[in-house]
Amino acid sequence: MSNLRNTMLATAVLAVAAMVLSASALAAGEKQKYYFKISNIESQDAKIIPMAKELLEKEVATRPEFTTDLGGNQSEDAQIAEIRKQGMQGFQVSLRITGLKKDILPPAPGHRDQQMSIEVKVSIFGHTIPGNKLLFTGDGNASLAGEFSERLKDKEDERFMRTALASAIKQAVSTAVAKLTTTTLEDRKSGKGSKGKKGNSKL
Protein backbone atom coordinates (compact mmCIF):
# COMPACT_ATOMS: atom_id res chain seq x y z
CA MET A 1 0.00 0.00 0.00
CA SER A 2 3.06 2.27 -0.33
CA ASN A 3 1.61 4.18 -3.32
CA LEU A 4 -1.62 4.90 -1.47
CA ARG A 5 0.24 5.93 1.68
CA ASN A 6 2.51 8.25 -0.27
CA THR A 7 -0.45 9.83 -2.04
CA MET A 8 -2.37 10.24 1.21
CA LEU A 9 0.72 11.74 2.89
CA ALA A 10 1.21 14.20 0.02
CA THR A 11 -2.47 15.19 0.18
CA ALA A 12 -2.23 15.65 3.96
CA VAL A 13 0.88 17.83 3.60
CA LEU A 14 -0.86 20.01 1.00
CA ALA A 15 -3.92 20.31 3.23
CA VAL A 16 -1.83 21.35 6.24
CA ALA A 17 0.09 23.86 4.11
CA ALA A 18 -3.18 25.33 2.84
CA MET A 19 -4.49 25.63 6.40
CA VAL A 20 -1.31 27.37 7.55
CA LEU A 21 -1.45 29.85 4.66
CA SER A 22 -5.15 30.47 5.31
CA ALA A 23 -4.54 31.10 9.00
CA SER A 24 -1.68 33.49 8.20
CA ALA A 25 -3.79 35.38 5.68
CA LEU A 26 -6.70 35.66 8.09
CA ALA A 27 -4.38 36.81 10.86
CA ALA A 28 -3.10 39.50 8.49
CA GLY A 29 -6.69 40.60 7.91
CA GLU A 30 -6.89 39.61 4.25
CA LYS A 31 -10.25 40.56 2.81
CA GLN A 32 -12.38 38.10 0.89
CA LYS A 33 -12.21 39.00 -2.80
CA TYR A 34 -14.26 36.33 -4.55
CA TYR A 35 -17.66 34.72 -4.06
CA PHE A 36 -18.00 31.17 -5.37
CA LYS A 37 -21.51 29.84 -5.86
CA ILE A 38 -21.07 26.10 -6.36
CA SER A 39 -23.99 25.29 -8.59
CA ASN A 40 -23.46 22.15 -10.63
CA ILE A 41 -21.54 18.89 -10.26
CA GLU A 42 -21.52 16.56 -13.26
CA SER A 43 -20.51 12.91 -13.28
CA GLN A 44 -21.58 9.77 -15.09
CA ASP A 45 -21.47 8.07 -11.70
CA ALA A 46 -24.16 9.94 -9.76
CA LYS A 47 -23.16 8.27 -6.49
CA ILE A 48 -19.99 10.31 -6.15
CA ILE A 49 -21.60 13.71 -6.83
CA PRO A 50 -22.30 14.45 -3.12
CA MET A 51 -18.69 13.54 -2.25
CA ALA A 52 -17.33 15.73 -5.05
CA LYS A 53 -19.43 18.70 -3.91
CA GLU A 54 -18.34 18.24 -0.32
CA LEU A 55 -14.66 18.09 -1.27
CA LEU A 56 -14.93 21.14 -3.56
CA GLU A 57 -16.60 23.16 -0.80
CA LYS A 58 -13.90 22.12 1.68
CA GLU A 59 -11.12 23.04 -0.75
CA VAL A 60 -12.61 26.49 -1.42
CA ALA A 61 -13.02 27.00 2.35
CA THR A 62 -9.24 26.58 2.87
CA ARG A 63 -8.62 29.73 0.82
CA PRO A 64 -9.28 32.94 2.79
CA GLU A 65 -9.77 35.11 -0.30
CA PHE A 66 -12.86 33.07 -1.25
CA THR A 67 -16.27 32.67 0.33
CA THR A 68 -19.37 30.64 -0.49
CA ASP A 69 -21.54 32.54 2.01
CA LEU A 70 -23.34 35.80 1.29
CA GLY A 71 -25.27 35.90 4.52
CA GLY A 72 -28.48 34.22 3.43
CA ASN A 73 -29.17 36.23 0.27
CA GLN A 74 -31.13 33.83 -1.94
CA SER A 75 -32.39 35.69 -5.00
CA GLU A 76 -30.00 36.47 -7.84
CA ASP A 77 -30.61 40.21 -7.52
CA ALA A 78 -29.90 40.06 -3.78
CA GLN A 79 -26.71 38.11 -4.40
CA ILE A 80 -25.48 40.59 -7.01
CA ALA A 81 -26.25 43.50 -4.70
CA GLU A 82 -24.35 41.90 -1.82
CA ILE A 83 -21.37 41.03 -4.04
CA ARG A 84 -21.12 44.65 -5.17
CA LYS A 85 -21.66 45.96 -1.64
CA GLN A 86 -18.71 43.92 -0.38
CA GLY A 87 -16.56 44.84 -3.37
CA MET A 88 -16.09 41.23 -4.47
CA GLN A 89 -16.20 39.40 -7.78
CA GLY A 90 -18.85 36.69 -8.03
CA PHE A 91 -18.65 33.43 -9.90
CA GLN A 92 -20.95 30.51 -10.52
CA VAL A 93 -18.66 27.49 -10.27
CA SER A 94 -19.32 24.06 -11.70
CA LEU A 95 -17.30 20.87 -11.51
CA ARG A 96 -17.24 18.14 -14.13
CA ILE A 97 -15.70 14.72 -13.51
CA THR A 98 -14.32 14.08 -16.98
CA GLY A 99 -12.66 10.75 -16.29
CA LEU A 100 -13.06 8.01 -13.73
CA LYS A 101 -11.38 4.64 -13.99
CA LYS A 102 -11.26 1.98 -11.30
CA ASP A 103 -9.62 -1.43 -11.60
CA ILE A 104 -9.18 -4.39 -9.29
CA LEU A 105 -5.79 -5.97 -9.86
CA PRO A 106 -4.30 -9.30 -8.72
CA PRO A 107 -2.14 -9.36 -5.58
CA ALA A 108 1.46 -8.27 -6.03
CA PRO A 109 4.01 -11.14 -6.01
CA GLY A 110 4.37 -12.44 -2.48
CA HIS A 111 1.26 -10.63 -1.23
CA ARG A 112 -2.19 -11.93 -0.40
CA ASP A 113 -4.48 -8.90 -0.81
CA GLN A 114 -5.75 -7.64 -4.14
CA GLN A 115 -4.88 -4.19 -5.40
CA MET A 116 -7.19 -1.32 -6.29
CA SER A 117 -6.28 1.28 -8.90
CA ILE A 118 -8.18 4.56 -9.31
CA GLU A 119 -7.67 7.42 -11.76
CA VAL A 120 -9.75 10.60 -11.62
CA LYS A 121 -9.84 13.65 -13.91
CA VAL A 122 -11.86 16.79 -13.15
CA SER A 123 -12.48 20.21 -14.68
CA ILE A 124 -13.73 23.38 -12.99
CA PHE A 125 -15.53 26.23 -14.77
CA GLY A 126 -16.19 29.72 -13.43
CA HIS A 127 -18.87 32.00 -14.94
CA THR A 128 -19.24 35.59 -13.82
CA ILE A 129 -22.09 36.80 -11.60
CA PRO A 130 -23.67 38.78 -13.18
CA GLY A 131 -23.12 38.25 -16.90
CA ASN A 132 -22.62 34.48 -17.01
CA LYS A 133 -19.32 34.91 -18.87
CA LEU A 134 -16.82 32.05 -18.69
CA LEU A 135 -13.76 33.64 -17.06
CA PHE A 136 -11.64 30.73 -15.88
CA THR A 137 -11.22 26.98 -15.98
CA GLY A 138 -9.04 24.53 -14.09
CA ASP A 139 -8.11 20.90 -14.66
CA GLY A 140 -6.87 18.33 -12.20
CA ASN A 141 -6.08 14.64 -12.19
CA ALA A 142 -4.92 12.07 -9.67
CA SER A 143 -4.24 8.38 -9.62
CA LEU A 144 -3.32 5.92 -6.91
CA ALA A 145 -3.04 2.20 -6.35
CA GLY A 146 -2.77 0.07 -3.25
CA GLU A 147 -3.75 -3.13 -1.56
CA PHE A 148 -7.09 -3.51 0.15
CA SER A 149 -8.80 -6.00 2.38
CA GLU A 150 -11.63 -7.87 0.66
CA ARG A 151 -13.76 -7.86 3.82
CA LEU A 152 -13.46 -4.04 3.95
CA LYS A 153 -13.86 -3.50 0.23
CA ASP A 154 -16.72 -0.97 0.45
CA LYS A 155 -14.92 1.22 2.99
CA GLU A 156 -11.63 0.95 1.15
CA ASP A 157 -13.35 1.83 -2.12
CA GLU A 158 -14.71 5.04 -0.59
CA ARG A 159 -11.35 5.86 1.01
CA PHE A 160 -9.45 5.41 -2.25
CA MET A 161 -12.03 7.45 -4.18
CA ARG A 162 -12.07 10.27 -1.62
CA THR A 163 -8.26 10.49 -1.60
CA ALA A 164 -7.95 10.59 -5.39
CA LEU A 165 -10.87 12.97 -5.87
CA ALA A 166 -9.62 15.38 -3.19
CA SER A 167 -6.19 15.49 -4.81
CA ALA A 168 -7.63 16.12 -8.31
CA ILE A 169 -9.97 18.85 -7.03
CA LYS A 170 -7.14 20.58 -5.14
CA GLN A 171 -5.08 20.66 -8.33
CA ALA A 172 -8.01 21.96 -10.41
CA VAL A 173 -8.84 24.73 -7.91
CA SER A 174 -5.17 25.79 -7.73
CA THR A 175 -5.05 26.03 -11.52
CA ALA A 176 -8.32 27.97 -11.62
CA VAL A 177 -7.16 30.40 -8.93
CA ALA A 178 -3.93 31.05 -10.84
CA LYS A 179 -5.89 31.78 -14.03
CA LEU A 180 -8.40 33.95 -12.16
CA THR A 181 -5.63 36.00 -10.55
CA THR A 182 -3.81 36.40 -13.86
CA THR A 183 -7.00 37.44 -15.65
CA THR A 184 -7.81 39.99 -12.95
CA LEU A 185 -4.33 41.52 -13.15
CA GLU A 186 -4.48 41.68 -16.93
CA ASP A 187 -7.88 43.40 -16.78
CA ARG A 188 -6.49 46.00 -14.38
CA LYS A 189 -3.44 46.63 -16.56
CA SER A 190 -5.66 46.89 -19.62
CA GLY A 191 -7.87 49.39 -17.83
CA LYS A 192 -4.90 51.53 -16.84
CA GLY A 193 -3.54 51.39 -20.37
CA SER A 194 -6.87 52.50 -21.81
CA LYS A 195 -7.01 55.44 -19.42
CA GLY A 196 -3.50 56.43 -20.40
CA LYS A 197 -4.34 56.33 -24.08
CA LYS A 198 -7.41 58.47 -23.57
CA GLY A 199 -5.34 61.02 -21.67
CA ASN A 200 -2.75 61.15 -24.43
CA SER A 201 -5.39 61.64 -27.12
CA LYS A 202 -6.61 64.75 -25.35
CA LEU A 203 -3.14 66.19 -25.48
Topology, pairings included?
Elements: H1 2-27, E1 34-42, H2 49-61, E2 66-67, H3 76-85, E3 89-105, E4 115-129, E5 134-147, H4 153-202
Parallel strand pairs: 1-2, 1-3
Antiparallel strand pairs: 3-4, 4-5
Helix pairs in contact: 1-4, 2-4
Attribute tags:
elongated, 28% strand, 203 residues, disordered N terminus, alpha/beta
Strand tally is 5
**What is the share of helical residues?**
40-55%
- State mean pLDDT (0 to 100 scale): 80
Question: Which structural class fits the helix and strand makeup?
Answer: alpha/beta
* Main sheet strand line-up: 2-1-3-4-5
Topology as a string of helices (H) and strands (E): HEHEHEEEH
- Gross geometry: elongated
Taken as a percent bin, the fraction of beta residues is 25-35%
Rg over alpha carbons: 21 Å
How far the N terminus sits from the C terminus, by CA atoms, comes to 71 Å
Largest beta-sheet characterization: 5 strands, mixed
Low-confidence stretches: 1-29, 193-203
- What is the number of helices? 4
